[in-house]
Amino acid sequence: MSRNIGLIDDSRVMRSILRKSIQMCHYKVELFMEAENGLEGYKMLAENQENLDIAFLDLHMPEMGGLEMLKKLREEGFGAVPIVIVSASSDAETQQECMDWGAVGFICKPFTPQELGALMSQVVGEA
Amino acid sequence: MDVRDSLLKAIDEVLDKMVFLFFEENESAFGGAKDFFFITQVEMSGVITGTMNIFLSEGTAALVARNLLGIRDEDELFEGTIDDALEEFTNLIGGRMMTILHPPGPFNMEVPQRVDQPAQPAGGQSELVINGTLEDEPFKIRLAYRETPT
Predict the structure, then answer these.
(1) Tell me: the pLDDT tens digits for B13-40?
(2) Is the CB of residue B96 less than 8 Å away from at least one CB of chain A?
(3) Which residue among A23, B72, B111, B127 has the highest number of C-beta atoms inside a 10 angstrom radius?
(4) Across the interface, do A17 and B18 touch by the CB < 8 Å criterion?
(5) ipTM of the shown complex
(6) How is domain B3-147 classified at the CATH fold level?
(7) Domain A2-55+64-83+93-124 has what CATH class?
(8) What single string gives the DSSP state of each residue in chain A?
């Protein structure tokens, strides 16, 4: 089964790392949709509610941060895409706030491909 | 956790989890900045305020970039790709160190950059240098910082 995956991160390298890690976990990917800032990411998620199986969202980005985007998506009724927050911060309060606004998971950098794979399997099922 | 232990833990975690390399600390100092092919720099502020530099040999810079990005040995590695990868590598180590420092607190990091020469420590800053090897090649991190008054 192939998945469509959204990657929203201002770092091109981090988007590459996410792609590599997902592929190392043997997930078949039909399409990676990518955005490099919060505004682009918001538009991408809002327009692809039916197409994306999961999206990884950086917490700290220019234009619109991950938490702000999460709130805006939920407030405007775009809650269909499961969103995993990616952040350097392991702060429990921040994690809880993201979960309260509908994130389905939180992964702290640095992460192993196995940690990412375990989170993906909870959200979209096994590879 | 103090600054030195936080930095060492951050180095180990990033290398182990995302670069798949093992850092071996070795206090015998390598040469100066001119002996390293690649130097990155990032400014950070939070519980501490300062500048971090990472020094790598040419071979280590390429190895870290390949492993971080999953680029196979037989595929060409462009200099711009090494720059991008090493800047993110610096961001990962700096961000992780600031996250595990105690006491914790919010922090900000500028965009890391490759530099020809590291910034000199400003007056009143402490200097922390960690020397070691990655795959038997020299690897060094220097942090010039001061604790931010609360």
Answers:
(1) 999 999 999 999 987 756 666 678 899 9
(2) yes
(3) A23
(4) yes
(5) 0.89
(6) Chemotaxis protein chec (3.40.1550)
(7) alpha beta
(8) -EEEEEEE-S-HHHHHHHHHHHHHTT-EEEEEEEESSHHHHHHHHHHTTTT-SEEEEESS-SSS-HHHHHHHHHHTT---S-EEEEES---HHHHHHHHHTT-SEEEESS--HHHHHHHHHHHH---
